[in-house]
Structure formats: structure tokens, C-alpha cells
Write a structure and sequence with these properties.
The protein is of the alpha+beta class and 1326 residues long. Helices cover 37% and strands 15% of the residues. The strands form 14 sheets. It has a seven-stranded mixed beta sheet, sandwiched between helices. A seven-stranded mixed barrel has the order 18-33-32-37-35-34-39. Strand 26 and strand 27 form a beta hairpin. One of its GO terms (biological process) is Mo-molybdopterin cofactor biosynthetic process. Belongs to the class-V pyridoxal-phosphate-dependent aminotransferase family. MOCOS subfamily. InterPro entries: Aminotrans_V_dom, MoCF_Sase_C, MoCo_sulfurase, MOCOS_middle, PyrdxlP-dep_Trfase, PyrdxlP-dep_Trfase_major, Pyrv_Knase-like_insert_dom_sf, Wax_synthase_dom. It holds the Pfam family Aminotran_5. Its EC number is 2.8.1.9.
Length: 1326
């Protein structure tokens, strides 16, 4: 055979492999094995030779002096020498340490270097195997290097930002990437060692050759340039034995000098009694490192492996030539695949071996796209490959750096994927439009050309589109009200076992979790805790449960061959008697996993029950129960959701059952769905299929020469058939949104994604290729295969999920009856809309108080916001990015001294423009939150940030004219009398100041122009956050400050608890005044004027209580917050929230808004008027014109501010003008009262008492008749649905709806870290 030096098409291929492979590798017959990078198959000759060696010789423990032991020692040392010769390594320069695998060798080096004085720094290449990456956790400092950084380091540039003192370093990299086969320069090892020496560092080099030596030679003849440590796994070369090696350059043996641990056979003497001393073996390094007894038989097998591999394949040079030829063939074949529109089928990440012959191994890493550019799911490729007996590797292939580099995954994206639930081995591999792994095909010495050709043909057959995905025909007309029938109803009491068909004319209950008794039990592996599945244990289909209600038992029969002494049938009580299960506090109780999800199930304690299932399946397992009503890990939620093809348009398709519209490449199929409880089903409460679709599928199977499949293989709960003489189009269920069976409504949750479990014959447990192969050709969308549809029972839920915790009354159950009930497919029924489905819960003339409207709308609003986030039409509210214009920009600008930079002060209007632009972007981009209060506060923040920021930046000269109260030590005054000190204490504004005036004094601190950045920042932030400022009436805090704050807090807490408990019964406060929902009987009986007045009082109470709860609470927390400077925590700085209501008696509506109502925003609202007066555009402040302009501006700004709150709320309002008109009407009311009062005062003398009565009546009347504009906008914004109190005391006492939780706050009230796609979009999400 030729060497690998020639690139000729036929040179290098070892045709002899085709002749002996069937004999030497019988396990490969009928399969195409393309995972040699994982492990390579072992030959028959190897196993036979090893067996002869083992049966012909007696091998003892090498640590003994017997003849058998000496034989083992002799053979091991001979094999150790053969290993060095295999790699052309001089025994005088290298030693071989036998380990379990390459990872064990890496770990041995890492532990030794960790024990060195001062530890070690670690540098590793980005395309390293995970085992190399893990060494960084042992290092003092570590860094991941790419090609450019490695070369820069080797040419003198220090890669570590803080290298510290000169010490030991380790540089590790793979000789060949296990992901894409790329090979890296062996010269790096020597260059790194020399670079370290030039800087006074002892740099060791570690080379991972596990991937390289499986198909290529490794030459270590030059010990001067060779790596210090070389790790490999022999099973990747020979298939057997399961053994690895660490080759150590003798000049690097000192790296192990500080190793602490010693095991049996590695020491010459050990003293334990009275002293702690030992003497390690010193002749050979391997004697000190091979702890305990070696894997004698594995090493003996290595001798046979070296011989048989040489006999079968020749030298490793020959193997390299053979695999290089196949690699070129595979790369060219995949590269040549094209869709009908000319687009490439495969995106290949491995280097083209034709272009870089010596820099790539026999590995091809790639992904598949459809003709429209959408990525094909890796798991779907692997499922189909398994059915067709192709053995490949998909996923991250234990190479995180290589994957992130090839797929251009940034760290924030990988963390986001993890937060989204992605884990190694999960099926959700396309996230946010990007794959998370690759398909890897790797070749070995026993691979042949037909393996490559078959695999390329496989990709061509199933993934190269031969025609356009859709044509231009009009959508086919479908019957709008076709009558369907329930063909059969089945349940599967034990997950993945046989089904139980509900007898005809038998009523069957439907719960929110699905059909009664469906998938309530499961079988759990005793060792792993994994729930068993037919995919791995097909004989589970032969376990047939039967529900015997007369005897109260679940009877289980096994229809296959049973072992001796094993009954064919057992009975399990249907009752949930605790005595049947293992004790909850039993040490044996542990969690199980179903579909990758951790659950806590109730395991049966009976050896008879568990022994039956273990015997018939041949698997140690226990029966467990997962009943409805659990909490925490004892409950699960549905994962089904509408797929993109079910939301797309309905263009006609030429392929039967193909989906109606092209996919959208840049996104994944993840769609946030509302939580619905399920038991042990994979994705949804109920699965339905159509017989018409099964028939169409069988027609396709027969056209391809296959055998029809039974509907049973799809394991559906409900099978639907067309009515007599009414043909039904196949796959029409894809377009359904709801289904009515009798009088009961079901909501469709999306198409069912299929795996190769559908290929298991439910009668015989035999596995075949169909129907999955045909489904892969006719029912694939974005690489995923679908058949059937998920659905759930929706008792008037509007598609928002059954409320958790509610009891299962008759209204929460459905009764299905087989055959006699019809199933209607609505096309445009009102129930498909949210309002209509909620309306279906209301019964005319009844109380309707038990209907939880807020929960319905809460789920609805949140699902809309999540959908908008997924579609990119909304963004979350993230700090600090979302307050850049409201806070960050003005604060930073004001921190820069202006007095010496007049040009900077003149730029203030440009800064204002930037603030407005950033704040407008917050509104324009749909920034929102799933928390109602936060959503409303976003608009308030944007508006107030613009108003207040403009006031401080442009209208005021804060660095010239503004001072803040500050505290400093009082200078001692000579001759000061005690009387003077008493007078000073008496004149103090409050007792906190009086207690300290002898030693401290308050003073006005101007802007610290010459202070540090932190001093200036503290001054500006203090000013910016104290936006109440001056210019309004404030009362000094009372001596008992805590009680002063706690009194309104406690009263408001109780009032708000009562408010949220009662207001939710009035639809006016839920969806808004245009609510179509009928009133509860108590409210519907009230006269309209009285109901309107009641709503006004309720609204005012809610707003007042919320302000009286949170504003004093903020003051209380600020007063006792040690982070706030003491000067800012004096009691005189804390004014009361509201003024005296007596001001309404004396000044009417003016008194209400200027004195009684809180004045938090007054300075900002009046700043524009003050600025115009300063410019001379308005007369003096006391002038009537100025007062009118100031009041009008203040009310206008207040209206805009509250209107923006509705715009950014969770359900965004469109009534922008309502709050603005409301506040402007308050200004009009003040003018009317002033004018009318002034005119009447000239002609009518009215007593002070009656004047006060008139003021109160006018104020209350005006507010009552105008407040609807504001209150209705807040209703549309759903602000009344916000839960202001975390714990409901009234609900704890039993008030409210049954099952309503007293804990009112959920996760949306907790700030979370948000990983944005750019660094500036990351932060705290509210």
C-alpha cells in the first residue's frame, strides 16, 4: 500500500478491508458505523487472540513474587516498551504510565501540578476536549487561547493579564480536534516550553493525541521538541482494550515531585504507627504513579491489539492514507449536495482535505439546512439515522470551544440557552435561530467506500429537497362544518406500556391533566431513576393494563413469554393507600426523570409488584404512581405549543401532508405556552389523531413498498374519523384551533413531534423503519417530524390553562362517550378569541362570582407579552439600559464640572435631545414587563425622567445655584454658655437634630466641583433622587417617626388587601369599562348612579392606599438605611405624604391638588414656567398669567406622564388622551371654581361653613364626573390587577375564592439577571 503523500483519487485506499471486514467485524453487517472518533470497533481476531492468551496463561497480581505474578510483570513491561515503539519514542527519554483513559491521564497531570508550591497557571487552546478544559479549575490562573493568541504568545506577548510571580505553567492543546478533525502544529509544544524558559517560567506542555492516533501515526523520536505529557486512549485505535496511557518526557518528571497521594505498589516503605513517613519508589516514574493494581488483563489485551491491528491494516501510515481517501470522498459528497433551488444542503465546518491535506483528520462536522435556509434538528437527523442503521454523533461532542467558534455562539448566548433549559442530550438544539451542536461523521481503519457513499445517499434522500416546497395554487377549499366522529378513546395507565381502549357507550371523565387514569403510573429504573420508555425497552408494549372498577384494581397482563415462576398477570389496587408505597422519609426515596424532567413519584413497596415488571422486562425496575394534585416536583406542565407551520398561510402543497408555508429561517420553534398540568405524558394532556391522516400516510408507505401501520403505533388518546359518506381531507387537524366533542370544548395545543417510537409494533414489540421514514419525507418541518395534534380540555378557559389549585367540579370535567358523540371542527367560531372563550364561563342570571377573571387576563396578558418578546416586537425592562435616558445620561452629564467649561454647559440642550431620543426608543421598542406595576411604572419613569432631567440639565443651573443639606463637626465656640446651647437645641427642627447639635452642624453644600468623582456622583444622585425638592408645604416629621410611618402602612395594607379581594369581582376593573362580561348579581342590582359612585370611591381608595403604603415605606427604609449619609436621614427632611384634607374646605379643587394631594413631582412640573419667567417670557411668578400658565403646564405634564404609563403597561392601552384630558379638566375645574367663586363673592355673602360645604361638593362632584377618563385608562392598562401586597391576610382567614393562594406575589415580582445579545442589553430585568 502507498503512503499518504499523494493526493491522487485512488492512492491510499485499502481495498483489502472490503474483503475481510464481514469476517473480522461481523457486528458491522447491516450498519454504517461513522463514530470512530468516539470509539472504533474491535476485530474478531483481536478478541479470539486475547481469549486464547487468557485461557492459556495464568496471570497473577504483579505485586507478588509468584510465577503467575512475575509473568504478569514481565508481559506488562514488554507491552510498555511496545507502546513506546508504537510512537517511535526512546525508552531513555519517555516513560509510559497506564491509566484508564486519556481523561485519567490529564487528571493525573493536573493533580500533580496543583500540588506544586504556588500551584500553576494554565493555558489551553479553544478547540480542546472538555477534559482539557476542566484542568482550569485546578489552576491558579487560566486562559483560553485561539490561533492568533497562541502565535502571539509564542512570539513574546504575555497572554495572562496578571501573570504573577514566575512559576510553573501548563500549556495544553489537542493534536487533532475531536469536533472537526483539524490538526494543530506539534511545534507548539517545544515553542511554548522555550517561551516559558525565556521568561523564567517552567512551562510544561500537554498534548491530547486521542483523536489523532486513532487514524494517524505519532512520531516522538525527537525528545527535545516533543511534548512533556502525551495522553491517549487505546480503544480509539484498536476498539479494545478499555485502556489509556500517559507518556511522560523524563525531563518533565519533576512535575510529579510534590504529588501527595500514594497507593499500593508505589512505595518502598510506609510507617503508620507513632510516625507518619513513607518512601516512594524512585527507579521509574510509572512505579510512583500507577496506584494500586494495574488493569492487568487490559494491558495483556493491548499486546494482542497491537499485533492484530498491524496484521489487518499495516502501519499507521497506511491507515492514515486509507482514512484520508475516505475523508476526501465524504467531504466532496456532502459538499456536492444541492436542493432544487441550488442551495447547499450541508454547512460543513471541517476543513476541505483537498485544500489542506495534512491539516485535517478523517472527521467531517456539518449541519443541514433546508432549501429555505432553516436549520434541521440534530435529534431528528439522529433518530432517522438510527432507524437506517447509521451510527453518527450529534450535539456538542464534548468540545465547547470548538462548537462555540464554529457556530459563532457568544458566551451570553450559551448562558441564555442554558437558562432556557438546554442541556447536553436535550432535543431542543435550535435556539434563537442557531444550532447548538453539529453532526459528526468520523472514519476509521475499517471504514470502506460504501460506508461513505451510503451516508451521502442517506442525506440526499431525506434532506435534499427535489422540488420547491410549495406552489402557487390557491388553498384548497375545505368543508367548514364537517361532522366528525370519535372512532375510539384509549388511555395508557402505565407510561409507555400498552393501552386500554374505553369500551363503547362508556362515559369517561376528562380532567385538566387529561383523560382519567391516563399515564398515572410509570416504571422506574432502580439504578438510574430514569422512567422506562418503549424506545429503549420495546417489550413494554406487551404489558397490557386493564381497569377493573368493580374490583377496584388495575389488572396488568404480559402477553409475551414470561420467565419461569413469574405470573402472567398481577393486580394493583386503584386506591392510593399510603401503605402501598414506600415511606416518604425512606432513604430509598429519590427523584426520577421523565423526558429529562425531574419528578417525585410514589414508588410501590411490594416486592411482588416490582418483581413482576422486573422479570418480564429483564430490567430492575419499580412501579411508581404520579397522581394528580401534586406540588413541586410532584407536578408537571405541558410543553406542547403551536408550531410555525400551524400559524403560517395555507398554500397548497404537492406532497400529501406537507406543511403549508415555508419556514422562517432566523428563529427556532420555541413558543412560550401557558402552563397546563399534565401527569406522565410527554407533552400535553391529550393526543388526538385522524384516521384520514393515517390512511393517507399508509398510502405513501405502500407506494414505497412498505407495509401499512396500525393507528395504535401513534398511541393517541382520541382517534377521530369522518362521518358516514363524508370524506375528510387528511391532515386537516393541523389547522384546527378548537374541537367540540358533544357539549365540551377542547383547545388544540399544536402538532405532535414524533420520534422513532412510532416504529414499534404495539402487538408484537417488533421494530421497523416505518412509519417514521415516510413521515420524515412527507411530514417534516424545519427538520422536525410531526403527526397528530395535542389538545386539552378547556372548560371556558379561553385557552389560558386551567387555574391551578381549583377543585375538579362538574364544570371542570368533561364526559366523553365513544361513537355517539360528534366532533365538530369550528373554523371561525367566537370561542377562538380570548374574550369569547372567557365569556363561555358566564351563566346568564347566575352569580358568576366564582369566575376568576383576573387570573384569566393575567395569563392572557403575559402570554401576549412573551409572544411579543419571542417575535422581537417587545423588549424587557432592564436596568441600567432602560433608564439610560431617564437617569444615566443626565446624572453623568451633571457630574462633570461646568463652571470652568462653559462650552459644556452650552451643550445642555444636546444632552436633553439625547435623553429624549433614548426615552423615545424605550417606548418605541415596546419595552414592558410581565409585572403590571413595573409595566405601568416604565411609562412613568420615561416621562418623569424626561421632565426632571430636562429641569436639572437645562432649566436650572444646579452647579451654580443648588446646594444640599450636609453634616459636619461643629466648631467649638469659646465662652458659649449652657443657656445658648439649650436655645440651639430648642430651635432644632426635630429631636434627631437636637440630639446632635452640640457636636455637629448642618450646612448648605454646593456642588463639589473640585471633589472626587465619587463625591460629585453622590451629590448629583442625591439631588436627582430628591425630586420633591423645595417650593411646597411640608410638615415636620413627628418625634415618633416609626409609628408615624407604620400607622398608614398597616392601614393601607389592610385596605389594599380588601380592595384586591373585592374589586376583582367587578369586570370594570379587569378588562376595562368596555368589558363584555356580565356583572355579579350584587353589582347588577345597583342603580347605575350608585354603581358609578361606588366605583369612584373604590378607585380613590385604591390609589390613596397604594401611595400611603409605598411612600411611607420608602421613607422608613431610607431613614434606617446605613448606606444613605446621615445628613440625608435627618427627620426634618422627611415630610408627610399627603397634606390636610381641611384644605379642600378652604380652597376646594385647588386645595385638593395643591395642598392635600402628594406633591412629589411639583418642582419638575413647575420648572418650565420658572424657566420662562427667568427668560422674561412670562411676568413675575405671582402674576395671574404666570400662575395660570404654571398650573396648566403642570397638569398637562401630569397627564402625559400617566398616559405613558398606560402605553407601556402589560396590556398596552390605546386611550392615550384619557389621562391628559382628565388632568387638563382639573385645571379647567380650578379656573371655573375660581371665576364662579369670585363672581358669587361679589354679590352673595356666604358663611365660612357653607363656603366649605360648597367647596367639598364641587370638588367631589368634579372628581367623580371626570375621574373615569383616568380610571378607565388604568383599567385598560390592567393596573388594578397588580397585587400590591405580598401576603393576603384576608385570604389566610378563608375569604376569597376557594383554593385562592394567600401568597400573592409570583416570580415576576423578583428581579432577575437578563442576558442580552449585546453587553449593553444585559442587566437586571424587572
Amino acid at each position: 500500500m502507498e503512503s499518504t503523500g499523494n493526493k491522487s483519487e485512488d492512492v491510499g485506499y485499502n481495498a483489502a478491508v472490503e474483503r475481510f471486514r464481514n469476517d473480522e467485524y461481523p457486528m458491522l453487517q447491516g450498519s454504517v458505523y461513522l463514530d470512530h472518533a468516539g470509539t472504533t470497533p474491535y476485530s474478531k481476531s483481536l478478541m479470539e487472540r486475547f481469549a486464547r492468551d487468557m485461557t492459556s496463561n495464568l496471570f497473577g497480581n504483579p505485586h507478588s513474587a509468584s510465577s503467575s505474578s512475575q509473568l504478569s510483570t514481565s508481559r506488562i513491561e514488554d507491552i510498555r516498551l511496545r507502546v513506546l515503539q508504537f510512537f517511535n519514542a526512546d525508552p531513555d527519554e519517555f516513560d509510559v504510565v497506564f491509566v484508564a483513559n486519556a481523561t485519567a491521564g490529564i487528571k493525573l497531570v493536573a493533580e500533580a501540578l496543583r500540588a506544586l508550591p504556588g500551584g500553576f497557571d494554565y493555558l489551553y487552546y479553544q478547540s480542546s476536549h472538555t477534559s482539557l478544559v476542566g484542568v482550569r479549575e485546578e489552576a491558579r490562573n487560566s486562559i483560553c487561547l485561539d490561533d492568533r493568541q497562541v502565535e502571539e504568545w509564542l512570539h513574546g506577548r504575555e497572554p495572562l493579564s496578571d501573570p504573577g510571580d514566575a512559576g510553573s505553567r501548563l500549556f495544553a492543546y489537542p493534536a487533532q480536534s475531536n469536533m472537526d478533525g483539524r490538526r494543530f502544529p506539534l511545534r507548539w509544544a517545544d515553542a511554548a516550553r522555550r517561551t516559558g524558559a525565556s521568561r523564567g517560567n517552567r512551562t510544561y506542555t500537554l498534548l491530547d493525541v486521542a483523536a489523532l492516533v486513532s487514524s494517524s501515526p505519532l512520531d516522538l523520536s525527537n525528545a527535545e521538541t516533543a511534548p512533556d505529557f502525551v495522553v491517549l486512549s487505546f480503544y480509539k485505535i484498536f476498539g479494545f482494550p478499555d485502556l489509556g496511557a500517559l507518556l511522560v518526557r523524563r525531563e518533565a518528571e519533576d512535575a510529579f515531585r510534590s504529588r501527595k497521594y500514594f497507593g499500593g505498589g508505589t512505595v518502598d516503605m510506609v510507617v503508620c504507627v507513632k510516625e507518619q513517613w513513607h518512601a516512594p519508589k524512585s527507579q521509574f516514574l510509572h512505579e510512583r504513579l500507577e496506584d494500586g493494581t494495574l488493569g492487568i488483563h487490559n494491558i495483556i489485551a493491548l499486546d494482542a491489539a497491537l499485533d492484530t491491528h498491524q496484521q489487518l491494516f499495516g502501519s499507521m501510515i497506511d491507515v492514515a492514507a486509507h482514512t484520508a481517501f475516505l475523508s476526501r470522498r465524504l467531504h466532496r459528497g456532502l459538499q456536492s449536495l444541492r436542493h432544487s433551488n441550488g442551495q447547499s444542503v450541508c454547512t460543513i465546518y471541517s476543513r476541505n482535505p483537498d485544500e489542506s491535506f495534512d491539516s485535517s483528520g478523517p472527521v467531517v462536522a456539518f449541519n443541514i439546512r433546508n432549501c429555505l435556509g432553516a436549520w434541521i434538528s440534530l435529534s431528528e437527523v439522529e433518530k432517522l439515522a438510527n432507524l437506517k442503521n447509521f451510527h453518527i454523533r450529534t450535539g456538542g461532542v464534548c468540545n465547547p470551544g470548538g462548537i462555540s467558534s464554529a457556530l459563532q455562539l457568544e458566551p451570553w448566548e450559551m448562558k441564555r440557552n442554558f437558562s432556557s433549559g438546554f442541556r447536553c442530550g436535550t432535543e431542543n438544539e435550535i435556539i434563537a435561530g442557531k444550532p447548538t451542536g453539529v453532526i459528526r461523521a468520523s472514519l476509521g481503519a475499517m471504514s470502506i467506500a460504501s460506508d461513505v457513499d451510503s451516508f451521502v445517499d442517506f442525506i440526499r434522500e431525506f434532506y435534499a429537497d427535489k422540488q420547491l416546497p410549495f406552489d402557487t395554487q390557491e388553498p384548497s377549499s375545505r368543508p367548514q362544518n364537517s361532522t366528525l366522529h370519535i372512532h375510539s378513546i384509549s388511555i395508557y395507565p402505565i407510561k409507555s406500556c400498552g393501552g386500554f381502549e374505553v369500551p363503547a357507550e362508556i362515559d369517561w371523565e376528562v380532567h385538566p391533566e387529561g383523560l382519567a387514569w391516563d399515564r398515572e403510573w410509570c416504571l422506574v429504573h432502580q439504578g438510574s431513576g430514569q422512567v422506562l420508555s418503549q424506545k429503549r425497552y420495546p417489550r413494554m408494549s406487551l404489558i397490557r393494563p386493564y381497569l377493573d372498577f368493580q374490583r377496584g384494581e388495575l389488572r396488568v397482563r404480559y402477553t409475551g413469554a414470561t420467565p419461569a415462576d413469574t405470573p402472567r398477570e398481577i393486580s394493583i389496587p386503584l386506591s392510593q393507600n399510603p401503605a402501598l408505597f414506600r415511606s416518604p422519609d425512606s432513604s430509598r426515596l429519590r427523584s426520577s426523570r421523565v423526558c429529562g424532567e425531574e419528578i417525585i413519584a410514589q414508588a410501590y413497596a411490594s416486592p411482588r409488584i416490582n418483581g413482576f415488571f422486573s422479570a418480564v422486562l429483564g430490567v430492575p425496575c419499580v412501579l411508581a404512581r404520579f397522581p394528580a394534585g401534586g406540588q413541586g416536583k410532584s407536578m408537571r406542565h405541558a410543553k406542547a405549543h403551536l408550531q410555525k407551520h400551524q400559524i403560517a398561510s395555507t398554500n397548497s402543497i404537492t406532497m400529501p401532508g406537507a406543511f403549508p408555508a415555508p419556514p422562517s429561517p432566523p428563529d427556532s420553534d420555541s413558543e412560550l405556552a401557558v402552563e397546563r398540568r399534565i401527569l406522565l405524558s410527554n407533552e400535553s394532556p391529550i393526543l388526538a389523531i385522524s384516521l384520514a391522516s393515517v390512511d393517507a400516510l399508509n398510502q405513501e408507505i405502500k407506494l414505497n413498498g412498505g407495509r401499512e401501520v396500525s393507528p395504535a403505533v401513534f398511541r393517541a388518546n382520541v382517534i377521530i374519523s369522518p362521518g358516514p359518506s363524508q370524506p375528510q381531507a387528511p391532515y386537516v387537524e393541523d389547522s384546527w384551533t378548537t374541537l367540540r366533542i358533544g357539549e365540551h370544548d377542547f383547545r388544540m395545543l399544536g402538532a405532535c413531534r414524533r420520534c422513532h417510537m412510532v416504529c414499534i409494533n404495539q402487538e408484537t414489540a417488533e421494530k421497523s423503519e416505518e412509519p417514521f421514514v415516510t413521515l420524515s419525507k412527507t411530514r417534516r418541518y424545519e427538520g422536525k417530524v410531526f403527526f397528530g395534534t395535542h389538545m386539552c380540555y378547556s372548560p371556558g378557559e379561553g385557552g389560558l390553562g386551567h387555574r391551578q389549585g381549583s377543585s375538579t367540579s362538574h364544570a371542570a370535567k368533561s364526559i366523553l362517550r365513544k361513537l355517539t358523540s360528534s366532533a365538530e371542527k369550528p373554523t371561525s367560531r367566537p370561542s377562538t378569541s380570548f374574550i369569547a372563550t372567557v365569556m363561555s364561563n358566564f351563566t346568564p342570571g347566575s352569580d358568576n362570582s366564582a369566575i376568576d377573571l383576573p387570573t384569566h387576563y393575567l395569563h392572557h396578558h403575559r402570554s401576549q407579552f412573551r409572544a411579543a418578546l419571542a417575535a422581537g416586537t417587545a423588549t424587557p425592562f432592564v436596568l441600567p439600559r432602560s433608564v439610560a435616558g431617564s437617569f444615566v445620561i443626565p446624572v453623568l452629564y451633571l457630574c462633570i464640572p461646568h463652571r470652568k467649561r462653559p462650552w459644556l454647559y452650552r451643550l445642555r440642550w444636546a444632552v436633553v435631545g439625547l435623553m429624549v431620543l433614548l426615552n423615545w426608543e424605550v417606548v418605541r421598542s415596546g419595552t414592558g414587563s410581565e409585572n403590571y406595576a413595573v409595566g405601568y411604572a416604565i411609562g412613568l419613569t420615561v416621562a418623569w425622567g424626561t421632565i426632571w432631567g430636562t429641569a436639572l440639565v437645562a432649566f436650572m443651573r444646579v452647579q451654580w445655584d443648588v446646594c444640599r443639606v450636609q453634616l459636619r463637626p461643629r466648631a467649638k465656640v469659646e465662652g458659649e454658655t449652657e443657656e445658648e446651647r439649650k436655645r440651639r437645641r430648642k430651635n432644632a427642627p426635630d429631636e434627631s437634630v437636637a440630639a446632635m447639635v452640640d457636636d455637629w452642624e448642618y450646612y448648605w453644600e454646593p456642588f463639589p466641583e473640585d471633589g472626587t468623582l465619587m463625591e460629585r456622583l453622590g451629590w448629583v444622585v442625591s439631588l436627582y433622587l430628591s425630586f420633591r425638592g423645595a417650593g411646597h408645604s411640608r410638615s415636620t416629621a413627628s418625634p415618633s417617626f416609626i409609628l408615624t410611618c407604620l400607622r398608614p402602612i398597616l392601614i393601607s395594607y389592610i385596605l389594599l388587601d380588601f380592595w384586591t379581594l373585592t374589586a376583582r369581582y367587578d369586570p370594570y376593573f379587569v378588562p376595562g369599562p368596555s368589558s363584555p362580561h356580565p356583572l355579579p348579581s350584587l353589582l347588577s342590582s345597583l342603580p347605575t348612579p350608585l354603581l358609578s359612585l361606588l366605583r369612584s370611591l373604590f378607585s380613590l381608595t385604591g390609589v390613596l392606599s397604594a401611595l400611603q403604603l409605598y411612600l411611607p415605606l420608602t421613607q422608613l427604609l431610607s431613614r434606617h438605611n446605613p448606606v444613605i449619609p446621615a445628613s440625608q436621614r435627618a427627620l426634618f427632611l422627611y415630610s408627610s405624604t399627603f397634606g390636610s384634607p381641611l384644605s379642600i374646605l378652604t380652597h376646594g379643587l385647588t386645595g385638593f391638588w395643591s395642598s392635600f394631594w402628594h406633591q412629589s413631582f411639583r418642582v419638575g412640573f413647575t420648572a418650565p414656567t420658572t424657566y420662562l419667567v427667568h427668560l422674561g417670557l412670562l411676568p413675575r411668578p405671582k402674576a395671574t398669567t404666570t400662575k395660570i400658565a404654571g398650573a396648566g403646564t403642570a397638569f398637562l405634564l401630569s397627564g402625559v406622564m400617566h398616559a405613558l404609563g398606560g402605553v407601556t403597561s402589560l396590556p398596552k392601552t390605546t386611550h392615550f388622551s384619557g389621562p391628559i384630558v382628565f388632568f387638563l379638566l382639573q385645571f379647567v375645574g380650578i379656573l371655573i371654581q375660581k371665576v364662579v367663586g369670585g363672581v358669587m363673592g361679589r354679590y352673595i355673602t356666604v358663611s365660612k361653613r357653607w363656603k366649605g360645604v360648597g367647596n367639598v361638593l364641587f370638588t367631589c362632584g368634579w372628581l367623580h364626573f371626570t375621574n373615569g377618563l383616568l380610571i378607565e385608562d388604568m383599567s385598560h392598562a390592567a393596573i388594578w390587577l397588580f397585587e400590591p401586597v405580598p401576603f393576603s391576610l384576608l385570604r389566610m382567614m378563608g375569604f376569597g375564592q376557594p383554593g385562592e393562594a394567600w401568597m400573592r406575589w409570583d416570580w415576576t415580582y423578583v428581579p432577575q439577571w437578563y442576558w442580552g445579545e449585546r453587553w449593553w442589553k444585559r442587566g437586571i430585568r424587572l
